[in-house]
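Predict the assembly for these two chains.
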Amino acid sequence: MYWNSFSDFIAMGTHGPYVWGSFGVMALLMILEPWLIARGRKGLIARLKRQFRAERAERNPMDSRRSRN
Amino acid sequence: MSNRLINWFKYASPQSFYPLAGKLIPWFWALAAVFGIAGLYIGFLVAPIDAQQGEGYRIIFLHVPTSWMSMFIYLVMAFWAGLGLAFNTRLSGMMAQALAPTGALMAFLSLWTGALWGKPMWGTWWVWDARLTSELILLFLYIGFIALQAAIDDPRRADKAGAILALVGVVNIPIIYFSVKWWNTLHQGASVSLTKAPSMAQTMLWGMLLCALACWMYSIAVALMRARSIMLERERHTEWVRALLDPQPAGKE
């Protein structure tokens, strides 16, 4: 371990804001990107499921009631 | 269907690639986490201070991997786009489309971390120097690719137009890479190159390589996630998507 204390680590010499500004934005975006994709995917799947169900109900009105659950 | 031509490569069809990608994604996430933690541990906790740049040099562990990825993702994206243009395969366009936003993110992070590194070292956030300007052009190429594809409704035509843009833009990659050699720039030369021994301490090198591997794994995981959504969206009229999302009880229909 290179650092003597936690406050040394945070200070990064005099470069703390630059180092942590880089790290923070990178971490934030790398959490945000997969989160947005996962959210979009959920919405897409829900939309497609609704659409397929509706189409099936149109084709076969008796069948749709049972599998709608 | 042009798919018949490439049956020897089973996973070129979205239908078989979709479940495969789903199985691979957790592994890439796990590898990204392992490499990321190891790289950041070495880079931020073990590596010694840099004699010239003080502690601020630690931005290298974020800046170099994102810069490499921004260039490499572009090459992969252009490769898929070119493949789609040549063979008219469905999966190629989807992969190119899935990679573009992650490439843009990497290019942005490269510029962002570069600016935050430049300020304490050079005294300025930004200069219109060859390396920085060509990297900015790379970001615009990604954004242009995304915007062009979004502007065309028919996905196959969007793929073709995007592919041409992506292929023309490839010329920018060697310009970025060699800019520090070809022009007299403020940006420092390559820290690691294929032709000579690295000009940095062993621990720093390991930290950087591990962080780069983490960025690779992250990019693959995220691109596969996005590709899966694109597949569902674009193939929603096919039977396999319908069977996947709206399974029928056996013997029905």
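The interface with chain B takes residues 1-3, 9, 12-15, 18-19, 21-23, 25-26, 29-30, 33-34, 37-38, 40-41, 44-45, 48-49, 51-53, 56, 60, 63, 67 of chain A (CB under 8 Å). The first helix of chain A runs from residue 6 to 11.
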